[in-house]
DNA sequence: TCTGGGGTCCTAGGACCC
DNA sequence: TCTGGGGTCCTAGGACCC
């Protein structure tokens, strides 16, 4: 193993145009045409292949604009179960390299291969072997960034795209980072980039050579310090198999929610509340499967002009009961006192989740012994046996 | 037919408590 | 009593990520 790569044990593996690659891999007819994954009414682009990107199509772009930019593109609806399957197989490939895998999303992960060197070779050899395994088994390509820290590895993988590997040795970190636009840094989005540009800070090098106090005044204590450190390649964040977010085996979720954009805007309270009930049922069903309950219920309302508000209320005790979440969300909605406001989207979220086993409910005087909670569990059993369509709250029928 | 859905984290003000 | 101050909870909003 060369001394250089032994000092760069962090891999960031990122599938290339993941959704688009998966949707087209078994479709010879889609190999040489621009492809956009997304669609649906009022939707956005989830992913686009490299031919479509050449026309300026990017993820999160409204579909209407994407079609205008690339009218010849084939639009394909996403197939999430297949994405999950492919993603699980790839994660298994990762775990054969090291147990230190931090899954960021369906198509991205950090690997710490510090302990794998003797067995599997240096980090670059490991990266290349993973790439060919994934290509052979899944028929899709990925790119890998190799560096001493997660933030630099993440930037390196972007440079490696598509279908490549980029290594940033420790002595090349600042020469790699400093020419990049500040917007490339992980955690700098549109707003922060614009703010930094207004201050005349265009490149990562500009940020590196700005006093921390100045950055903190503009961006707040935390972000200011954080960006200054990132600009010098200082990143104490470690690859943690615990931080796996939505996927199994990691830290539990802190909140669960669901939201839905209406096919067309509505000002009808009945229509909105029927959707709120549907969302409350969806969320609490997931909570009961996960064995969690939460005290805070948050309602999101987005109006026709895209302004978005949230209102939340913390209940005395944690709940996973559909009717209780629905009741709180309804109170929050009615407290808005809306008069004919055009509503585009509603969302329901339950926060402050704790294991259900840690919740001991006070018996409220007059509360039926077998109340809504038992009703929910009966619904869950029926859904488990007969499928989602079998049981719905009465007002959804 | 402009702008999805699932999350996390940070900030800031006010209440409240010691 | 020339009004301090810290810690925690709650709420609302905003930025960001994939």
UniProtKB/TrEMBL annotation:
The alphabetized UniProt keywords are: Cytoplasm, DNA damage, DNA repair, DNA replication, DNA-binding, DNA-directed DNA polymerase, Magnesium, Metal-binding, Mutator protein, Nucleotidyltransferase, Transferase
Site described as Substrate discrimination, positions?
19
Q: Write the Enzyme Commission number(s) for this entry.
A: 2.7.7.7
* InterPro entries in the cross-refs: DNA/RNA_pol_sf, DNA_pol_Y-fam_lit_finger_sf, DNA_pol_Y-fam_little_finger, DNA_polymerase-Y, DNApol_IV, IMS_HHH_1, Rev_trsase/Diguanyl_cyclase, UmuC
Stored SUPFAM superfamilies: DNA/RNA polymerases, Lesion bypass DNA polymerase (Y-family), little finger domain
Q: What is this protein called?
A: DNA polymerase IV
**Where is the UmuC domain positioned along the sequence?**
10-189
Task performed by this protein: Poorly processive, error-prone DNA polymerase involved in untargeted mutagenesis. Copies undamaged DNA at stalled replication forks, which arise in vivo from mismatched or misaligned primer ends. These misaligned primers can be extended by PolIV. Exhibits no 3'-5' exonuclease (proofreading) activity. May be involved in translesional synthesis, in conjunction with the beta clamp from PolIII.
The catalytic residues are: 108
Q: Which family does it belong to?
A: Belongs to the DNA polymerase type-Y family.
Give the organism the record lists.
Nocardioides taihuensis
Q: Which Gene3D superfamilies match?
A: 3.30.70.270, 3.40.1170.60, 5' to 3' exonuclease, C-terminal subdomain, DNA polymerase, Y-family, little finger domain
Give the cofactor note text. Binds 2 magnesium ions per subunit.
Top-rank lineage group of the source organism: Bacteria
State the encoding gene: dinB
Which Pfam families does this one have?
A: IMS, IMS_C, IMS_HHH_1
Localization: Cytoplasm
Name the principal localization, coarsely classed. Answer: cytoplasm
Q: How does it assemble?
A: Monomer.
MF terms (GO), sorted A to Z: DNA-directed DNA polymerase activity
Reactions catalysed: DNA(n) + a 2'-deoxyribonucleoside 5'-triphosphate = DNA(n+1) + diphosphate
Q: Which cofactor does it need?
A: Mg(2+)
The record lists Mg(2+) as bound by 14, 107
């Amino acid at each position: 193993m060369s001394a250089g790569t032994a000092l760069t044990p962090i891999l960031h593996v990122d599938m290339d145009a993941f959704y688009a690659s998966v949707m087209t891999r078994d479709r010879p007819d889609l190999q040489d045409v621009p492809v956009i994954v997304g669609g649906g009414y009022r939707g956005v682009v989830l992913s686009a292949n490299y031919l479509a990107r050449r026309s300026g199509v990017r993820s999160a772009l409204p579909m209407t604009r994407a079609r205008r930019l690339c009218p010849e593109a084939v639009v394909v609806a996403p197939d999430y179960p297949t994405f999950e399957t492919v993603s699980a197989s790839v994660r298994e490939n990762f775990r054969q390299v090291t147990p230190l895998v931090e899954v960021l999303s369906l198509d991205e992960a950090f690997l710490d291969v510090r302990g794998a060197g003797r067995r599997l070779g240096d980090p670059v050899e490991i990266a290349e072997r993973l790439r060919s395994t994934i290509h052979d088994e899944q028929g899709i390509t990925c790119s890998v960034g190799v560096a001493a820290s997660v933030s630099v590895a993440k930037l390196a993988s972007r440079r490696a795209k598509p279908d490549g590997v980029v290594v940033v040795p420790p002595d090349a970190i600042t020469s790699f980072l400093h020419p990049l636009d500040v917007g490339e840094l992980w955690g700098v989005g549109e707003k922060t980039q614009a703010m930094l540009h207004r201050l005349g800070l265009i490149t990562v090098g500009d940020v590196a050579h700005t006093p921390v106090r100045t950055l903190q005044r503009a961006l707040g204590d935390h972000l200011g310090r954080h960006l200054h450190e990132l600009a010098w390649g200082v990143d104490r964040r470690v690859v943690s198999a615990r931080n796996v977010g939505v996927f199994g085996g990691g830290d539990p979720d802190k909140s669960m929610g669901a939201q839905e954009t209406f096919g067309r805007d509505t000002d009808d309270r009945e229509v909105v509340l029927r959707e709120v009930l549907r969302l409350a049922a969806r969320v609490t069903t997931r909570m009961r499967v996960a064995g969690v309950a939460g005290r805070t219920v948050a309602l999101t309302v987005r109006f026709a002009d895209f302004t978005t508000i949230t209102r939340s209320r913390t209940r005395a005790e944690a709940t996973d009961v559909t009717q209780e979440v629905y009741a709180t969300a309804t109170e929050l909605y009615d407290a808005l006192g809306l008069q004919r406001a055009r509503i585009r989207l509603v969302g329901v979220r339950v926060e402050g989740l704790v294991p259900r086993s840690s919740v001991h409910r006070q018996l409220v005087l007059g509360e039926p012994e077998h109340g809504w909670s038992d009703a929910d569990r009966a619904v869950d059993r029926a859904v488990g046996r007969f499928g989602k369509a079998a049981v719905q709250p009465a007002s959804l029928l």
